[in-house]
Amino acid sequence: MNERETADGEGRVWRALDLPLDRIDELPFGAIVVDPDGTIREYNEYETRLSHFAKEAVIGKNFFRDVAPCTAVHAFEGRMRAFLKTSDQVSEKFDYFFPFQHGGITVEITFLRLRHKGQVLIAVERADTAGTGTGL
Questions:
Q1: Which of 120, 61, 60, 110 shows the shortest CA–CA distance to 85?
Q2: 81-112 confidence digits (pLDDT tens)
Q3: Is residue 45 a part of any domain in this protein?
Q4: Total domain count for the chain?
Q5: Is residue 46 in a domain?
Q6: What are the tens digits of pLDDT across the range 6-45?
Q7: Would 19 be classed as within a structural domain?
Q8: Angle at the Cα of 63 (from 61 to 66), degrees rounded to 5?
Q9: Is 136 within the bounds of a domain?
């Protein structure tokens, strides 16, 4: 096990750091890349299937205000803002419940600090499949 892998399977999220953003659709979990202000820059196919939002409809929109207003709370947006203020923290993981119109789902969220312009990769894994490599 290297420094990027842990016993709970977090290594596959870490491997996203090594993947060029033009290959984001290859990730086996939802991946949303946002600027520090929450503007969505990348949105992968897995997340499209999970959320039922088309990539074209969300790129350039604010994740917290326009796409997932249920995350405009301290437990999510506040947590990301605090994460961005730290300089030594590379990732943060927590569980979150998304009340989608097509049915609510508990997911495991991982914030990963990207090297590009202070962006954050928000990894979204269904809680029942996190770390298993299975999809929807």
A1: 120
A2: 999 998 788 899 999 998 867 778 899 999 99
A3: yes
A4: 1
A5: yes
A6: 334 455 555 556 667 778 898 889 999 999 999 999 999 9
A7: yes
A8: 60
A9: no
The rounded distance, in Å, linking the Cα atoms of 89 and 77 is 16
**Measured in Å, how far apart are the chain's first and last C-alpha atoms?**
27
The pTM of the full predicted model, rounded to 2 decimals, is 0.81
Q: Are 112 and 33 in contact (CB under 8 A)?
A: no
- Residue 113 sits in which domain range? 11-126
pLDDT score, position 80? 96
Burial of 54-76, coded b for 16+ CB within 10 Å and e otherwise, reads eeeebeebbbbeebbeebeeeeb
Asked if 77 and 94 touch (Cβ cutoff 8 Å), the reply is no
Q: What's the CATH code of the domain at 52?
A: 3.30.450.20
